């Protein structure tokens, strides 16, 4: 069955003006999904916008492998003091029993988790930088530029993961 999950996240903070660090969402993410290929639940699945498949992290007994998932939409909205990401991930799901835990797979992992990546550019050092946010971080999450300690927009709310179909 084809399933879709919507992920939304928001960063708030200083207005993105000419002297700012040009914060931007990177078009890659990791999401916990149950993988019918290696028959394991709660696998970290790496996705890159534009790729036709994702990579399942598998486990010690199974190597990383391609899996049937892709980023179907990647929309960013920039407002005065807020940048919002909405992304949709399509993936193929089929029922199975986990080969190690003997538990049934679910369309969305029982404990859904996502890591989103952001980038910026330090105008003072003329260097790019990057960081990530994820669902299991204590909020608010604050980041500073690795070169000049400029306070970057922060993550005050946990990213939302919602099963669409």
Structural overview:
This protein has 165 residues and is mostly beta strands. It has one domain (2-163). It is 0% helix and 49% strand. It has no helices and ten strands. It has strands spanning 2-12, 24-35, 40-48, 54-56, 65-67, 69-79, 82-92, 114-122, 127-134, 160-163. It has a six-stranded antiparallel β-sheet, with no helix packed on it. The model has no long low-confidence stretch (mean pLDDT 91).
* Secondary structure: number of strands: 10
Domain count, please report it.
Answer: 1
Helical segment count: 0
- The gyration radius over C-alpha positions equals 17 Å
How do the helices and strands follow one another from N- to C-terminus? EEEEEEEEEE
User: Could you describe the largest sheet, including whether it forms a barrel?
Assistant: 6 strands, antiparallel
